[in-house]
Specification:
Aspartate Aminotransferase, domain 1, six-stranded mixed β-sheet, alpha/beta, 2 domains
C-alpha cells in the first residue's frame, strides 16, 4: 500500500502496533485526530485536509482500540468515497466487529458497492470472537491487485496458519454461532455494568466505550497517565493502559479492558478508585 517515505492516515488515538509497524517500515503514521467531543469518530473533512501526494491509504478501526468507538455506517461510506476519489486505499480493521450491540445490523455496506475491490481492504481476526488468540488466525478481504501483494508478504512471514486451527474454524463458524451470540451479550452486559459503576466514581468520566474497551478520563489534571496507571496497578490492583501509549495528547485518559472481568469484579471499581492519589 505504501513505501518508505510515504504516509498513511491513522486515527489518533491509535492502536500502538499499527503506529510502530509503520515506523519500522519508514512510513509516516500521519495522525487523523479523533476527539472526545465527537465520540472519537474520525472527521471526514479533517481527513481530506490531511491528504497530500504522499498519503497512500486511510486506516479505520471500528469498533476502535483503544477508545471502543463504533463508527457509523455513513461515516465509513464517506471515507470509502474519499479514498476512491483520491485514488488511495481504505483499510478497515474490524477485529472487534462481533461485539457490536445486541440486534445491531451490518456495520457498513462497503461490499454492496460493485467497485469495492478498487479501494477497500478489510481486516478481521478470529482471535477475539472465537477465543483463539494464540493461533494467529485472521482474514483479509481485498481485490486481486492488493491481495497479490499481501500474499507475497505473508509468504515471507507465516506462509499460512497451522492447519488444525483452520480446520477447527471451518466448523466453528457455524457450530459456535450460538456461543458467539451469548458471548456478545455477556460483553455488552459488562459495558452496561461499567457505565453504571463509573457513575459512582467522582471525577472519572467515560469518554467512549464499546466492544472490549472503555476510554476513561482520569481526574488528576497535569498528572501523566502512566503515573496514574502505575498507582492503580500497584496500589489498587486495577490494570489500565495509559493514554500516552496510544499517541500524543492522550495523557488525560486510561484505557480499561473489561472483556475478562465479570460484573462482580467491575462492581468493585468505585471502592478501588476512591481516594487514589498518584
Amino acid at each position: 500500500m505504501a513505501r518508505a517515505g510515504e504516509a498513511v492516515l491513522l486515527p489518533a488515538p491509535w492502536y500502538f502496533n499499527h503506529q510502530m509497524t509503520l515506523n519500522m517500515l519508514g512510513i509516516e503514521a500521519r495522525p487523523l485526530p479523533c476527539l472526545a467531543a465527537g465520540g472519537f469518530v474520525p472527521d471526514l473533512a479533517a481527513a481530506e485536509r490531511l491528504i497530500d501526494g504522499r498519503v497512500r491509504a486511510i486506516v479505520l478501526v471500528t469498533p476502535n482500540n483503544p477508545t471502543g468507538a463504533i463508527y457509523p455506517a455513513a461515516v465509513i461510506a464517506g471515507f470509502a468515497a474519499l479514498a476512491r476519489a483520491r485514488g488511495i486505499a481504505l483499510i478497515v480493521d474490524e477485529t472487534y466487529r462481533d461485539f457490536l450491540g445486541d440486534g445491531a445490523g451490518r456495520a457498513h455496506e462497503l461490499f454492496a458497492d460493485p467497485a469495492w475491490r478498487d479501494t477497500v481492504i478489510q481486516l478481521y481476526s478470529f482471535s477475539k470472537a472465537y477465543a483463539v488468540p494464540g493461533h494467529r488466525l485472521g482474514a483479509i478481504t481485498a481485490g486481486p491487485a492488493a491481495m497479490a501483494g499481501i500474499l507475497k508478504i505473508l509468504d515471507s512471514f507465516q506462509i499460512c496458519p497451522a492447519r488444525p486451527g483452520q480446520t477447527a474454524l471451518a466448523w466453528a463458524i457455524e457450530g459456535l454461532a450460538d456461543w458467539r451470540a451469548a458471548t456478545r451479550s455477556t460483553i455488552n452486559g459488562r459495558i452496561d455494568a461499567f457505565r453504571t459503576v463509573m457513575q459512582a466514581c467522582p471525577g472519572w468520566a467515560i469518554s467512549s466505550i464499546g466492544a472490549y474497551f472503555a476510554y476513561v478520563r482520569h481526574p488528576f489534571a497535569g498528572v501523566p497517565a502512566e503515573r496514574v496507571a502505575e498507582a492503580l496497578a500497584t496500589g489498587r490492583g486495577v490494570l489500565g493502559l495509559p493514554g500516552s501509549y496510544f499517541g500524543p495528547g492522550q495523557d488525560g485518559h486510561l484505557r480499561f479492558a473489561f472483556a475478562n472481568a465479570d460484573e462482580a469484579a467491575i462492581a468493585t471499581l468505585p471502592a478501588r478508585l476512591a481516594g487514589l492519589a498518584p
